[in-house]
Amino acid sequence: ATKPYDDDNIFAKILRGEIPSTKVYEDEWAFAFEDINPQAKLHILVIPKANYVSWDDFSARASDSEIAGFIRAVGHVAREHDLVEPGYRLLANVGHYAGQEVPHLHVHLFGRQPLGPMIA
Ligand code: 5GP
């Protein structure tokens, strides 16, 4: 089962404006900002504004509106950055095996370079 949401996680603090981030997009459902330790020429994190621990928690608990709003926001960020051609990658780590570090759902968006094989 998914752990309860921790209000003190670093992305919760970013959403509350308690620690700074480089914002690239924001709407009703989502907030997007640059990863502090980029793994590609472009590395953005897109997070829902509501509190979900992971993709698992989100897909199980979020309303249809939240899910639609968040997924549309991810697509919007990619289009806004002109990534659709030549392409980009989305990634969401869930839990221990995937090495999820921050317990607030985040979708990694990588682009601006060839991205190599899927599994690191
Ligand atoms: P995970 O391993 O949980 O999927 O990814 C966590 C990501 O958050 C990592 O890519 C890491 O560089 C990024 N990150 C961790 N702390 C901060 C922070 O304080 N600010 C920003 N912008 N990114 C962070």
TrEMBL record:
One function term, GO molecular function aspect: catalytic activity
Residue numbers covered by motif Histidine triad motif: 104-108
Organism per entry: Qipengyuania atrilutea
InterPro entries linked to this entry: Histidine_triad_CS, Histidine_triad_HIT, HIT-like, HIT-like_sf
Active-site residues, as the UniProt record annotates them: H106 (tele-amp-histidine intermediate)
PANTHER family listed in its UniProt record: HISTIDINE TRIAD HIT PROTEIN
Name of this protein: HIT domain-containing protein
Annotated HIT domain residues: 10-120
Pfam families for this protein: HIT
